[in-house]
Specification:
It is a single chain. With 99 residues, the protein is an alpha+beta fold. It has a single domain, classed as Alpha-Beta Plaits, CATH 3.30.70. The chain is built from 2 helices and 5 strands. The N and C termini lie far apart (31 Å). The structure holds iron/sulfur cluster. Iron/sulfur cluster binds next to helix 1.
């Protein structure tokens, strides 16, 4: 687990799975619990770490992250074919397409 700083703003934590990396910015969270209800095996506030991207299919993780109403959750797909082994450019946020 690592922390990513973006634009000098609040910290965003990264939870790395084999196929998808989920990031979370606590300051944005509206506690709507879309994540917890949508995929409780991955998003469990009572567990540490509270996000376990490998606990479900990556497609389902992405689906729930995209439903996050605040943009607190974001994801990046891991491209295992990439030569550097790092995350692919494919990324998204639950706030996409919203004003
Ligand atoms: S869905 Fe987003 S806003 Fe709602 S509890 Fe999860 S992280 Fe917070």
């Amino acid at each position: 687990m690592s922390e990513i700083r973006e634009g000098g703003g609040a910290g965003r934590k990264a939870y790395e799975g084999r196929s998808v990396i989920v990031t979370f910015e606590a300051g944005r969270c509206r506690h709507a619990a879309v994540c917890v209800h949508g995929l409780p095996e991955v998003f469990d506030p009572g567990a540490r770490p509270w996000v376990r991207p490998d606990a479900a299919e990556a497609e389902r993780v992405v689906e729930v992250v995209r439903r996050c109403p605040s943009g607190a959750l974001r994801y990046a797909l891991v491209d295992r074919a990439a030569s550097d082994g790092g995350p692919d450019a494919a990324a998204g946020t639950g706030a996409e397409g919203k004003p």
